[in-house]
Amino acid sequence: MTQKPIEPAGQGGPTSPNTAGRPPGPIRRALRENNVRVGLIIFSLIVLVAIFAPMIAPYDPQERLRTADGELARLLPPQRDYWMGTTNFGRDILSQFIVGTRRTLSVGAIAAFMAVFIGTNVGLIAGFRGGRVDNLLMRTTDAAYALPFLPFAIVLVGIVGRTDLILIAVIGLLFWRTTARVIRSQVLTTKERTFVKAAIAGGASPRRVLYAHIAPNVVALALVYGMLLIAEAVMAEASLSFLGFAPPDSLSWGTIMFDAFTSQRMRQAWWWPMFPGLALMVFMYSVYSVGQGVQRALRHMDTPNIGPSTRRVRRALKRSVSVPVAGDPPDALVAVENLAVTYQPRTPEEQPVPAVKDISFRLDAGQMLGIVGESGSGKTTAVRALLRLLPPTAEVSGGMWFEGRDLYRIGDSELRALRWEHLAFVPQSAMNSLNPVQRVENQIIEAIRVHRDVTRAQAKEMCATALQQVGINPARGRLYPHQYSGGMRQRALIAMAKVLEPTLLVADEPTTGLDVVVQDQIMADLERVREELGTAITIVSHDLALVSETCSSLIVMRDGDVVEAGPTDRVVSDPRDPYTRMLLSSAHGAPAGTHGSTGA
Predict the structure, then answer these.
(1) CA separation, residue 457 to residues 291, 446, 593 (Å)
(2) By the 8 A CB rule, do 42 and 285 touch?
């Protein structure tokens, strides 16, 4: 089979693990979404209007304007001179809207900052201190949830008076609660990480541990909630102003709607409250688009903890790769030499866990390799090490090459170019591997368009072909994963993996939880991929008898060790290790040595 050229996404040659390019941060990742970009543009325009309001307002917002014949310009509809019309006192609504934007945003932003500051510190202290302090702060948070917003605002304004400071205090004192809960839950996870334990063991004061080691890892999440709180605070300010709690003679979007309501001319002058109401809707859309986009980007990061402390610990836990001998890469599609994986402890009380102790194999185009063993034998860890999908705490040693490239000496950008286009993966648990709220065909089309510069129509045609090749009617691609049977979901994953004709396909437990008939169909689909595309396939399974029917070679693992490896015919007909004989015997339900009559 002719190997497809791989075009590295970055410039220059392969980089070492210590200099590999970092994945894009949450902001860059979020800016890839159209909704986020549009929302950011709208938000920026509104902020610019607030900053330069006095300069761009066409009239004095309190000036009573008159028409050419000297009459008061009362309740004029939108027109060339008055783009948003006029009020019953002849004031220009556009000028009031522009000037009022500054107060609306400033009150909302200050109140949101106050809420985030209180909520973040409450969450940090509660999560870090625990015990009675945590219980006291969380019960205070619960009590704050019990306070109704409007009655509390009415009472406070009635006692103190109508001022911007009171509005900010009301909003800030009631909107910190959700931030506190979210930050606390993040701190509970972060404080158990190794770098925090090391800082405590090194003699750092609790205050330094909290604000120098833990806080930087949760500040990004606090900023996201701060962005969302700006929208809620602006809406709260508009609501209170609309109810008449704004200071006298102040201008904001809410007071414009309040004046329209109290004038009793809303039916006649429909344009008066409409424009500030639309502005509130557009502003809410822009803020939520940006905030939720960043929130999604944070969830997709390879670790939920963002900050300098986390980067330090990830460097400390960086996989150390020991290349056996420097020189030319092995002459094979896939070459693994002396692979060992050890999970390092996250806390001082834990011990390192050697998941894979020593494994070596070669795989060429068109070959099928089966890695079998019971649960916990290390087979999944071995293939995830090959795919570089292990967590940061996994320490990897050995050499791994794919198409002549050292997989642990290429950068992340080049690795992304390899994945799916050349190196595809069929994970365990098909139901959990497919997005439950997206149609199956949309998920396959997305995978295609990420790696190929094709139109949606072309990607849809490729998707239909791939589904048809694994026995799924392309029309059923419009269905959701829960509308598929277990076997169909597994076939859909295989279709997604093969649609770009990869050089290597790794299938992790592709038949788990399926009946024997469907298992045979899935294995037949994989065999067809190998025959039609010349794809090399690695299958991870606990069923030795099943994979032996299609794989040309086998590796049998137990407790991280390779107990037997070789051509399938030899392993099945002449097993040399008692564990292999036990697996064959249990698979066929017959004593070891009688497996030849079963056709395994």
Answers:
(1) 32, 12, 55
(2) yes
Phi and psi angles of residue 561, each rounded to the nearest 5 degrees, phi first? -100, 150
Dihedral, 90, 96, 98, 101 alpha carbons, nearest 10: -160
What would the two tokens of residue 550 be?
């299609």
Catalogue all structural domains in the chain, each as residue range(s) with its CATH number: 28-61+85-302 (1.10.3720.10), 365-385+406-585 (3.40.50.300)
- Residues with Cβ within 8 Å of 150's Cβ and at least 6 positions away in sequence, in order, are 239, 243
Give the chain's length.
Answer: 600
What's residue 437's pLDDT? 60
CB of 413 closer than 8 Å to CB of 8: yes
Kindly state the DSSP code that residue 59 receives in the 8-state scheme: S
Question: Do the Cβ atoms of 141 and 177 come closer than 8 Å?
Answer: yes
pLDDT digits (tens, 9 = 90+) for 538-565: 888 888 877 888 888 888 988 888 888 8
CA distance 310 to 469: 45
Q: What is the rounded distance in angstroms from the CA atom of residue 366 to the CA atom of residue 529? A: 9
Distance CA 318, CA 322 (A): 13
Beta bridge partners of 540: 371, 508
**452 vs 410: CA distance, rounded Å:** 21
556 three-class SS: strand
Enumerate residues 6+ apart whose C-beta is below 8 A from 105: 46, 47, 50, 234
Q: Does position 591 have pLDDT exceeding 80, yes or no? A: no
The pLDDT value recorded for residue 298 is 64
H helices of 426-508, in order, are 430-433, 440-451, 456-469, 486-498
Region for residue 534 given its phi and psi (left: phi exceeds 0; alpha: psi -120 to 50; beta: otherwise): left
**Residue bearing tokens 């509390």:** 152
Q: How far apart are the first and last CA of the chain?
A: 29
Tens of pLDDT, residues 434-465: 666 678 888 788 778 777 888 889 989 999 98
Which candidate, 108, 120, 116, places its Cα nearest to that of 43? 108
Task: List, in order, residues 6 or more apart from 71 with CB less than 8 Å away.
Answer: none
pTM: 0.49
Q: Which residues contact 339 (CB under 8 A, 6 or more apart)?
A: 356, 358, 359, 360, 382, 385, 386, 396, 397, 398, 399, 400
Instruction: List residues bridging with 339 in a β-sheet.
Output: 359
